[in-house]
Amino acid sequence: MPRQQRIRDPLHDLIEFDIERSQLEDVLWRVIQTRAFQRLRRIKQLGFSDFVYPGATHSRLLHSVGVFHTARRLMKVIEKYLPAKDARVDQALAAALLHDLGHGPFSHAFEKIGERFDLKMANHEAVSEILIRDSEISELLRDMGSGFANDVADMVSGSGTPTIYSAVVSSQFDADRLDYMRRDRLMTGSQHAGIDFEWLMANLEVGDVEYSVDETRLKPVQTFVLGRKAIFAAEAYVLGLFQLYPTVYFHKATRGAEKIYTELLSRTIMLIRDGSVGKTGLPEMHPLVKFARTPDAIENALALDDTVIWGALPLMANSNDEWISKFAERVRDRKLYKCIDVRAKIAHDKDDGAALSFEADAACAVIRDEIGKCLEEWSIKCPDAPPRILIDEVERSPYNKLTEDTKGPLNQINIRTDGDHLVDLSKRSNVVAELKRYKAFRVYHADDDDEAKTKISEIIDAGISKWPT
Fold first, then answer.
1. In Å, what is the CA distance from 323 to each residue of 115, 248, 288, 290?
2. Do the Cβ atoms of 74 and 175 come closer than 8 Å?
3. Where does the record place the HD domain (predicted)?
């Protein structure tokens, strides 16, 4: 057997596993060969983003290996400050590789279906924990020690006291984010969201950050901090994440596809549970049918991936259920609903400044809720017909100040000052301090449904008319 195994990665180039001299890397290489990990080849990292960016077809498997590689880079930083060998190094590296193990088909969109039906096995964190603690993977991990698998699972789930090692797995500056920001930008071809990765790594330090909760000073937390020369790179890092959300992760077409997919699978699961498998177009032994009937079985969850859903679409398109057949065709052929951006319409009708006040003014939130309620009431008048209106409301903060976040310093970026103090980035950077939460409120309708389009406009206009003067 060769001394090293290599994976060629478009982002990191060669990712090597020294299976002769490193027991951990030998174990993790064998973990990569397991069925559960290989399943990640068939789950795209960005779900439906290739509907917008055709190059964005990279897999969760490649991202997971890239996170492991990035975690090794972060460990070299830790070694400069904490040279003593710590068992948590190996735990964090294994956790970095396995953090996405439990994702279902189309990842986060599948979790929305799980929330609707209370399906534990649609939650990627729950599935990951089971696979790490009790599966073929856990058996391999036990070569590192009897309690190693459980320690890794705890680190993936975020259990226990935060440490510099858990910061590698989950923090504002963790290996996951450092990989997916760069990888997703590369694979989509977007020119937004570029970060100065090497400069950030060159200026990365380990520091003890003090903080308080409810005016009670707590024990300092050891985490990653950035040297004084990295403030502009840190700003670009935060801005890069902020830019990825509207341009990639929350793109209107991507979100529109996710909405149709969610309604398609929800309808399918509901019919299967009601004993109407024949209406779905799927055979009795199809993996999706088996999952809907016995959703708590880990084996049924592992049988699902993106390819299973893609393969089911031609069958579902021939369903005698109008809802399933129409939505299956829409996903298969990328015939998405048209999008009306409610926030943009308010800004257009009231003036550009209205978009800002829409975020800050409580009265605007009432109007938004009223519009959403009216749209939902109209759309469910025919419960057995395919939904004519799909509503998408989402928000994301690019950076939470320490006072806004309960996770403590691990979820902050601290910069060392010329006076050798550690200060939260939002207090050193006017750019970061002024960033607002990204919010989207959109309504989707079929392009040939003039009645729905007219009704949506009427409801939105009625809501806007109540805008405070």
1. 21, 28, 17, 21
2. yes
3. 60-181
At position 278, the amino acid (one-letter code) is G
Q: How far apart (Å, rounded) are the C-alpha atoms in residues 160 and 263?
A: 37
pLDDT 10s digits, 7-29: 999 999 999 999 999 999 999 99
The DSSP call for residue 436 is P
224 pairs with which residues across the strands?
Answer: 206
Residues in Cβ contact with 33 at an 8 Å cutoff, skipping those fewer than 6 apart: none
Return the SS3 of 172.
Answer: coil
In this prediction, residue 410 carries a pLDDT of 78
**pLDDT value at residue 407:** 58
Taking the C-alpha atoms of residue 265 and residue 152, their distance in angstroms, rounded to an integer, is: 32
pLDDT of res. 398: 82
pLDDT of residue 352: 56
Q: Residues 6 or more apart from 448 whose CB is under 8 A from it? A: none
> What is d(CA 10, CA 379) in angstroms, rounded to the nearest whole number?
45
The predicted structure's pLDDT at residue 360: 41
CATH class of this structure's domain 4-168: mainly alpha
Alpha helices in 84-174 (DSSP H): 87-98, 108-117, 124-133, 136-141, 148-157, 164-169
Domain map (residue ranges) of the chain: 4-168, 252-336, 339-398+435-465
- The parts of the chain modelled with pLDDT lower than 50 are 358-360, 404-405
Q: Which structure tokens are listed for 310? A: 């893609």
Long-range CB contact pairs, 66-69, < 8 A, 24+: 66/9, 66/11, 66/12, 66/15, 66/179, 66/183, 67/96, 67/97, 67/99, 67/100, 67/175, 67/176, 67/179, 67/180, 68/15, 68/28, 68/93, 68/96, 68/97, 68/175, 69/9, 69/12, 69/15, 69/179
pTM: 0.93
Q: What are phi and psi of 31, to 5 degrees?
A: -60, -40
